[in-house]
Amino acid sequence: MRLSQGQLNLLERCPRQFQHTYLDGIISPTSLEQQERLSSGSRFHLLMQQRELGLPIDAIVKENEQLQGWMNGFAIAATEILTPADGEFRESEHCRTLQVEEYLLTVIYDLFIARDDTCQILDWKTYPKPQDRRKLAQNWQTLLYQYVLAETSEYLPEQISMTYWFVQSDDKPQSLTFNYSNTLHQQIEKKLKQLLLQLTNWLKSYEIGEQFPQVVEGSKTCNYCQFISKCDRNFEADLSAQEYSTNKLPLLANIQEVVIQ
Length: 261
Ligand code: SF4
Hints:
The protein is of the alpha/beta class. The chain is built from ten helices and six strands; from the N terminus they run βααααααβββααββαα. The protein is globular. Bound molecules: iron/sulfur cluster.
């Protein structure tokens, strides 16, 4: 079974939601707003990939004011990223797979830069920089991306880092960097193996007709879930508008990576 960071996030957030999405194959409609955000994100990723491959991007950028703004802002804020250094290996949409027990953990780095003594994973986000970096530090994208690199390369954990670039931040693109370490590597390995063991047990139960566990009754997780009616859960009406909009962004961050051909 292939697993991505998005699937691990979902599994950790609510196993039943994982079941409905990936095992029962229940497809939920995306809103127009979500579709627009996703296609803007895909366009930016495609553009960055074309740029990295040395293909012309001017014609595409000229036709889209939003893309133009993001590209111009990024070129000013992250000149060093866009300028290859001598002797480094760079690849956009760099894919790695690691087998852990019966699972294939798959990661796709928007840009991977490897030098003699360090290597960097870069990820583009087309939403504003989140206020709370702890949430992103604990997100499976940050954890799994660095873990898989440490496991599939000769680099020491201390030589690995991951940087998110948020191109839609208020005045100019902003970044958040997470440095990896051997201590973190051990912690993630433990957490990952526990989660995979739970998944194996839930899958066995599912095969004999049992459902994956739900989050506890009254959990706010249900407020952001499309299966709220199916699970017969109630919407927590006291959730403030600010809390709602703050919580919507991490969900977008968990949407499955799109492989650009
Ligand atoms: S409604 Fe709640 S319990 Fe049901 S799948 Fe969604 S998050 Fe899980």
